[in-house]
Amino acid sequence: MFKKLFRRFSKDMGIDLGTVNTLVYIRDKGIIINEPSVVAINTRTDQLLAVGDEAKKMMGKTPSHILAINPLDEGVITDFEITERMLKYFIDKVNNKNFNFISRPRVVIGIPLEITEVEKKAVEDAAMQAGAREVHLITETMAAAIGARLPIHEPIGNLVVDIGGGLTEIAVISLGGIVTWRSLPIGGRVFNKNIIDYCRENFSILLGEPTAEDIKIKIGSAYNIAKPIDIKAKGRDLITGLPKEIILSDEQVREALRKSVKTIVETIKDTVEATPPELISDIYERGILLSGGGALLKGLDKLIHKEIKIPVNIIDDPLTAVVRGTGIILEDLESLKDLLSPSTRE
Question: By CB atoms within 10 Å of each CB, which of 109, 182, 202, 288 scores lowest?
Fold first, then answer.
């Protein structure tokens, strides 16, 4: 009876707590929040100044007493208190601050494959302190597979590559479990850093991360494109200290990203080689599935196909695959609970 009462009044939510972005899915409503995982704090007063989009606008532009930071790195919490406050902000936003015991939500959160028990407990504790009634965890690759509606409970091999802001995770899924997997500390933020480093070394110019991200999105690619394109980039001349503008070509950006992209491709190949032979034929037939923001890097699917000789498909709306998966679990939590990661509270 009480469970039905809680279910009726609480806005249960699925959360993709990413290094770069946090997405929130509300049961029966869909995705209602997609904002940067950034928090701005006044260190003198400990006042929370902004979260999400507004906080991201402050990055690199604040006085010394204001910090605009990402409280997660490589998909795990690096600042527990700031993460808790960020989660509380999003939960309050969903509930319009009309918060009481009955309205406390059940929460399903995506977590990395390579996560320790201490890190899992930090996620659970942060969500509970932020106002959750129950916290359930699921690995992000499994959530992405669910979000893509893959037949994960069947004896069929599904190879999912989730390229997020801080991590690339590769998993072979069959019979509701992960058969083999690999994890890399390479994602969208590393791509941005690759572009920044390339421009520093070749043009003696320092770019801000937002500029590098804009370059990556607009002309970044992993494979030769039909029509060459270029872009203007503004930064600080490292020799004179004055503003400087350069023009970058898609070929130069591709060169900047080459090492990171090559590492991802080689790790996918290693994962395939470690997969049981019985599942390899399924993967060759069904192909590799890409999810996460990194899946949108132009030509990445073509490069993987060329190097590994397996068809590659990109999940529809790859940025939201993980949070859609958490939402599907929320809608049928009882029958899908075997897919969840064991809680540290049990």
Answer: 202
Contact 291, 322 (CB under 8 A): yes
Determine the 3-state secondary structure of 338 from DSSP: helix
108-137 per-position pLDDT tens digit? 999 999 888 998 999 999 999 988 999 999
Percent of the chain scoring above 90 in pLDDT: 74
Quote the CA–CA distance of 162 and 169 in Å, as a whole number: 5
CB 197 within 8 A of CB 207: no
**Cα distances (angstroms) measured from residue 35 to each of 116, 136, 139, 141, 331:** 26, 22, 21, 21, 23
Distance CA 65, CA 182 (A): 40
Using a 10 angstrom Cβ sphere, with 0-12 exposed, 13-18 middle and 19 or more buried, the burial of residue 132 is buried
Q: State the DSSP H helix or E strand holding residue 67, giving kind and residue range, or none if neither.
A: strand 66-69
Cβ pair 71, 86 in contact under 8 A = yes
Report whether 232 contacts 298 (CB < 8 A): no
CA–CA separation, 136 and 127 (whole Å) = 10
In the numeric block, which tokens belong to residue 258? 């080459």
The predicted structure's pLDDT at residue 345: 64
- Residue 295: CA atoms inside 13 Å, Cβ hemisphere, count? 25
- The string of pLDDT tens digits covering residues 231-251 is 999 999 999 999 999 999 999
Whole-number pLDDT of residue 344: 74
Q: Quick one: pLDDT band at residue 180, thresholds 50, 70, 90? A: very high
CB 325 within 8 A of CB 110: yes
CB atoms within 10 A of CB 210: 13
- Length, in residues, of the chain: 346
The pTM (predicted TM-score) of the whole model is 0.90
